[in-house]
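Researcher: Please generate the 3D structure of the following complex. Treat every line as part of one assembly.
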Amino acid sequence: MNKFEQLGLNESLLLAIKDLGFENPSEVQEKAIPVLLEQNTDLVALAQTGTGKTAAFGFPLIQKIDAENRNTQALILSPTRELCLQITNEIKLYSKYIKGLHTVAVYGGASITEQAREVKRGAQIIVATPGRMQDMINRGLVNIKNIDFCILDEADEMLNMGFYDDICSILSDTPEEKNTWLFSATMPAEVARIGKQFMSEPVEITVGHKNSGSATVSHEFYLVNARDRYEALKRLADANPDIFSVVFCRTKRDTQAIAEKLIEDGYNAAALHGDLSQAQRDGVMKSFRGRQIQMLVATDVAARGIDVDNVTHVVNYQLPDEIETYNHRSGRTGRAGKLGTSIVIITKSELRKISAIERIIKQKFEEKTIPNGIEICEIQLLHLANKIKDTE
Ligand code: ADP
Ligand code: MG
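Model: Done. Output below.
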C-alpha cells in the first residue's frame, strides 16, 4: 500500500499525487493529514517553509469538501498575491480528478468584479489575501457565513504584514462551528493571540524544532569592511559558478542599485522590489524560474512569495532589521530536502547579531573567508574543464 493511501487519502487524490510525482509524504503531511481526515478539529501546525504545508492542509481539505454542493465551503488566507496564486494552482492540481470542484484566487491588483464573478459561478474553495478578502466582504461580493473550514497559511507572515485587523474581521464573519487550521513557521505572540481568540482546543503539530531553521540549510558568514561589501558579493558569485540565488538587501534603492551593478559587471542578475509594476515582477520571476537569472536581488517584502526549488544560496547582502526575518530569508533555500547555504556578508559592528541569530535558528554559523583571485581562477578553470568534458 502506498504511503499516501495509508494516511487515508482517497483514489482521486492518490491519482493526482501520482501525477505530481510525490513518492512519500513529508513530515508535516504525515502528521496533519490523518488527524484532519479523521477528526473535525482545529489545528495549529508549526513548520518551516518548504516542508510541504500546502498539501498537508490541501489534501484533507479537498477530501472533505462536497464537490456537488456549489456553495463556498472553505477559505484559505495567505499573505501575498504570489502565495495566493501558488496555493490556488497547487489545489487545482491536487483536485484535478474531482469533477465540479472549483477553487478561486482572490487577491489585490486584479479586477475585483472578475473575481466576484468567478466566486459567484460556484467556488467551494476561495484562496485569498486578507486585504482583498475584506474588500469583497465589505462590498457583499462573497458569502463566507456558512464555510466549514478556514485555513490561515503563513500566519506569522500575514501578521508581520499588518493584517491582524483584517484577519480578525474576516474570521468574525465566519460561523463558530467551522474548523480552523493555522499554519505558521514561527509562533510569535500575535499568532498565539489569533489562535486563542478564534480556535478551540486545537491539535498541535510541530515539525522540527519550534522557530528553528531548516536542517538542510547551512549558515556561513564573511566578515568584510563596509566598503568591500559589493566586491565580496562578486567574489562569492565568482567562486560559485553554478550559483542560483536570492540576494537580500534592506531597501528598494539598494536592491535596485546592487542589481544594476551586477548586470553592468556581467552577471545574470535582476532586481525584485515593490517599485516594479506587477508585470515587471512577473517577468523577473519567470526568468528566475527559468534560470536565466542566477542572482535575484530582492527586498524582504518582494521575496515573500518566492517559492522556487533548487535555490543554492541565500545571500544576506545586508542583514535584516528584525533578526527574525533571517529565518524567512534562509528558508528560500534548502527546500524539498535539498541542501542550501545561507550566507551573511557582515561588518565588524554587526557581528553580535550573528549570535542572536544562532539562538533563533538553533544552529551555528561557520566563519569563512572570501576566496582570493587565485582561488577563484582555480575554481573557474575546473568548472570550465568539467563543462568541456561534459560536452561531446
Ligand atoms: P511550504 O508551504 O511548507 O513552504 P510547499 O507546500 O510550498 O511548502 O511545498 C514545497 C515544495 O515541495 C513544492 O514544490 C511541493 O510541490 C513539494 N512537495 C510537497 N509535498 C511533497 C512530497 N510529499 N513529495 C515531494 N515533493 C513535495
Ligand atoms: Mg506554503
